[in-house]
Specification:
EC 3.4.11.9, metal-binding, single chain, globular, transit peptide, mitochondrion, 13 helices, Creatine Amidinohydrolase, Chain A, domain 1, Creatine Amidinohydrolase
């Protein structure tokens, strides 16, 4: 999915914490033999192994993330000259409603989820430094919705404090209402509070529990410190367990693309291709689609975030499908463009091959030390060259005119970071040097609206984008979407029109 944003560059080092430490998982004692508010090793042994909080991610991994966060806070507090006592507050998302009593499917705040793996709404994670011990030593406490048979009759089971404690492996668990008992300690000037108060993710919890603290601290010398940028630093570099989950999401989506491409019929409704892609993802184990997909036929592909998906694609037109799935809390983001009747016209093939050449050239730059900004500059230079080769712009154009044309015909960036979110860690600058474990998208495109009288007639109305998901490694880049055909001959085999 194209993204225009370009955000903050972190001042501190993005490399993982290098210190040696040991984190022992809690013993799996007294695990509730009942359904919780999310899958558990007891109720869903086909999905989770003992010791896992969410599929593929153990209590130890979540504890390690919290340890690394407190290590970053230790570093930042030394620079800022903060106190030695710290409290970190992260809220879950609330349940949102589409109308009276009808909720939208719940999706957790991913910063909260990243640190504890708890999937219920109306919850709070509190990390507190331990008295007399230096960071990153801390205690982790979860405040979760109280068990309520009346509500559980309608909404399904809740984990409760015992379930949350056993599943996540935090140190202590309380009901959300009990959070009020810890609040008086947070007014102490000697405690530095880390909390994202600017745009609260849970407005009701913020208003009822934290707004007075925020207002008090705004008049204090020891003001509340923002937290999101530190969590995003951690989320930027994926662990091996995270990469395995992202491989799964990439494989599911790639297979769904193949099945959707193989539905060679024209005319075809965009809604049909949308439904086909959605079904094929879920049938292979995806939880949901990662975002509303773009299924844009013909000239509609020149609307970058076209999501109405309600038109008919005629024979002879191409479809641009930008879609991905979420599986076990991690996402994929892939784009392919193909002719719905299975046969490229000469102009379609020429423009498609130009975009593919640009994309493959950009993929070769995905190595440690470069950056998305570097790859973007290369993409623009390559697109300018292709526009010239295809005579979409005059061969006599100056360098500045070529650059302007490249920006015109590809108005978005080359890619973005990928992980638990599609546009993952948006606060991280694209100028940050890439390092092993980062995952990015590479998605050049050329878009020529049908009313562009400056372009040759045969290319008007064509919009082509090719997008892959890429893991940065010490060696060559690992393409998570490698199973998804993009070479013309590969797609023709799927269509059944190849020689």
């Amino acid at each position: 999915v194209p993204n225009m944003g370009c955000k903050l560059l972190f001042g501190s080092c993005l490399s993982c914490i290098r210190r040696r430490f040991s984190i022992k998982p809690k013993q799996l004692l007294n695990f509730p033999k009942r359904y919780l508010g999310q899958p558990s090793p007891f109720t869903h042994p086909q999905c989770l192994k003992p010791g896992e909080v969410t599929p593929g991610l153990t209590q130890t991994e979540y504890a390690l993330r919290r340890y690394k966060l407190m290590s970053l806070i230790q570093k930042e507090s030394q620079v800022l000259g903060c106190s030695t006592d710290h409290a970190v507050i992260i809220l879950s998302n609330p349940t949102l409603y589409m109308t009276s009593d009808i909720p939208f499917p719940f999706h957790q705040n991913n910063d909260f989820l990243y640190l504890c793996g708890f999937l219920e709404p109306d919850s709070i994670l509190l990390l507190q430094s331990q008295s007399g011990q230096a960071l990153p030593s801390h205690t982790a406490k979860l405040y979760v919705p109280r068990r309520d048979p009346g509500r559980e009759l309608w909404d399904g089971p809740r984990s409760g404090t015992d379930g949350a404690l056993s599943l996540t492996g935090v140190d202590e668990a309380f009901t959300t209402e009990e959070f009020k008992h810890v609040l008086p300690k947070l007014y102490d000037e000697g405690v530095t509070v880390w909390y994202d108060s600017t745009i609260p993710v849970h407005p009701a919890l913020h208003t009822s529990s934290l707004q007075p603290l925020v207002e008090f601290r705004s008049r204090s010398k020891n003001r509340i410190r923002p937290l999101r940028h530190l969590v995003q630093q951690l989320r930027l570099v994926k662990s091996q367990a995270e990469l395995e989950l992202m491989k799964k999401a990439g494989h599911i989506s790639s297979q769904a693309f193949i099945e959707t491409m193989s539905c060679r019929k024209a005319p075809v409704e965009e809604a049909f291709l949308y439904a086909k892609f959605d079904f094929e993802c879920r049938a292979r184990g995806a939880d949901i689609l990662a975002y509303p997909p773009v299924v844009a036929g013909g000239n509609r592909a020149n609307t970058l975030h076209y999501v109405k998906n309600n038109q008919i694609i005629k024979s002879g037109e191409m479809v641009l499908l930008d879609g991905g799935c979420e599986a076990s809390c991690y996402v994929s983001d892939i784009t392919r463009t193909w002719p719905v009747n299975g046969r490229f016209t000469a102009p379609q093939e020429a423009l498609y091959q130009a975009v593919l050449d640009v994309q493959k050239s950009c993929l070769r730059l995905c190595f440690p030390g470069t950056s998305l900004e570097n790859i973007y500059s290369h993409m623009l230079a390559m697109i300018a060259r292709k526009l010239k080769d295809l005579k979409i712009v005059s061969r006599g154009c100056s360098e500045s005119q070529l650059f302007k044309a490249a920006r015109k015909y590809c108005p978005h960036h080359v890619g973005h970071y990928l992980g638990m979110d599609v546009h993952d860690t948006p606060g991280v600058s694209r100028s940050v040097p890439l390092q092993p474990g980062m995952v990015i998208t590479v998605e050049p495109g050329i878009y020529i609206p049908e009313d562009d009288t400056e372009a040759p007639q045969q290319y008007r109305g064509l919009g082509i984008r090719i997008e892959d998901d890429v893991v940065i490694t010490e060696q060559s880049p690992l393409i998570l979407s490698a199973d998804c055909p993009k070479e013309i001959y590969e797609m023709q085999k799927v269509f059944g029109t190849g020689s």
